[in-house]
Amino acid sequence: MQSIVLITKLISCFAGSCIKRETMLLFKRFHSSVHRIAEISRASKPGDTLHVKGWIKNVRRLKNNIFLDINDGSTNEKFQLVVPRNTGTQQLTSGCAVSATGCVQVAPNGHLELHADEVESLTDGHLKDGYPFSPKQKHAPEYVREHLHLRSRIDYIAAQMRVRHRAQKAIHDYMDELNFVQINTPLLTTNDCEGAGEVFRVQPESEPLLKQMARPNIPSDQSYFDQKVFLSVSGQLHLEAMSYGLGNTYTLAPAFRAENSKSPLHLAEFYMFEAELVHMEQLETLASFIECMLKEITNRLLNANAADLQFCQQSANASTDLAWLQVPWKTLSYDEALALVIANKQSFKSAVTPNEGFSKEQELFLVAHCGTPVFVIDWPAQQKPFYMKTCRSNPQLVHALDLLMPSVGELCGGSLREPDAEHLSRHPQLPKSLGWYVELRKYGGLPTGGFGMGFERYLQLLTGVKNIRDVIPFPRYPHSCKM
Q1: Mean pLDDT, 10 residues at a time, over the chain (483 residues)?
Q2: pLDDT at res. 11
Q3: What does the pLDDT read at residue 23?
Q4: Which pLDDT value is given to residue 135?
Q5: Residue 79: how many CB atoms within 10 A of its CB?
Q6: SS3 per residue for the chain
């Protein structure tokens, strides 16, 4: 009967303007009697009765009582339970999940603790044998990655995931406030956007299915879609198509690169934040947008989750000073940047190759030389993809930018898009399958510009984590696709 009343009230709320407030109240009343540890210190006081659940991080056994440090994933802080020592509680070990109800009291150290009247183990069996993480031992990241299914129990990984969540929220909130439309760009596509060939091929595993769908003049391995299909390397071209009818758009979606790279800055599957801005005619305006956006979402993240961010930085032995938030960023032309690199080539381990751009070592040198993040603009056309706008005063250049940041090097790449259909159709690298992309310019075309940012690299920039595999829940890289 109580469930029927609840459902009736929910339906009533959905029909009226009270949907958000009433639904939250009902949810808390019927589904959320458990207190999250992150809320206890600010919302509870001595004498309160609380119900908590979490995983045991550490156990200390005294003569009459057992002290349990538990964590529920809402914060990096532990919460202490004081439970009577008996045959039931004696079996509790690190890693077990428990549910406890009791009275809040003040511990000798001044922190709140729970003197539990009721403690229930939520874990079947014991974790003494086989559990890979010891409570008082610091485990190497390489070792933790061998246990992806359990690594959310590790404090610094949990903190990384909360920072990741808050960073995504900051991006979505900021873009929504600026009236950008979020587009769910496809993961399956027939183009590889930049033409580099670093794509994963997609086709059904089932041979009988492919034979069943076979059509004349279509290779059997392409019979599902009638053509080759890949995992997306970028949502940019699809964003452009949507922007020509919606205005400013963005996406935060998975992207895939088939590279044989095991560097700490590369993944086979990662997330890209990409934005497309209409009526964009000046590269400097695009650079200003990127700078303002990155500073604003970072400040929001600091306000929302400073404790986790600082914990990640400390765990990585990284600086907690994000000095780039407080200074204006600089801009160099590609020729200016190249001249600086050539003048200091004796300082680099990597070779200076003017026709191939800059190595990470050289990117970090440019950032250090400028003393701020730096936009490198107006690149040689031969180094950039077909869709970038050619400089009309010098056809050897395109209106492109790379944003170089401390510790990670290139963070963003962007450009003005070529708005002229005839000019675009003559580009020697334009794929034959992108007639629709040229057609966009013919029917109500307008100048646009945009950029892409590797989301995991942004998290590395903030947290100081050296290996990109530790800022994503389930890393995929060459020779490793676990779970």
Answers
A1: 46 51 52 82 89 92 92 94 88 88 93 91 70 84 93 94 98 98 96 77 94 94 94 96 97 95 91 98 98 98 95 92 96 97 92 89 97 97 95 96 97 97 93 92 93 98 96 95 92
A2: 46
A3: 54
A4: 74
A5: 26
A6: CHHHHHHHHHHHHHHCCCHHHHHHHHHHHHHCCCCCHHHHHHHCCCCCEEEEEEEEEEEEECCCEEEEEEECCCCCCCEEEEEECCCCHHHCCCCCEEEEEEEEEECCCCCEEEEEEEEEECCCCCCCCCCCCCCCCCCCHHHHHHHCCCHHHCHHHHHHHHHHHHHHHHHHHHHHHCCCEECCCCCEECCCCCCCCCCCECCCCCHHHHHHCCCCCCCHHHCCCCCCCEECCCCHHHHHHHHHHHCCEEEEEEEECCCCCCCCCCCCEEEEEEEEEECCCCHHHHHHHHHHHHHHHHHHHHHHHHHHHHHHHHHCCCCCCCHHHCCCCEEEEHHHHHHHHHHCHHHCCCCCCCCCCCCHHHHHHHHHHHCCCEEEEEEEHHHCCCCECECCCCCCEEEEEEEEECCCEEEEEEEEECCCHHHHHCCCCCCCCCHHHHHHHHCCCCCEEEEEEEHHHHHHHHHCCCCHHHCCCCCCECCECCC
Quote the pLDDT of residue 5.
46
Asked if 118 and 102 touch (Cβ cutoff 8 Å), the reply is yes
pLDDT of residue 374: 98
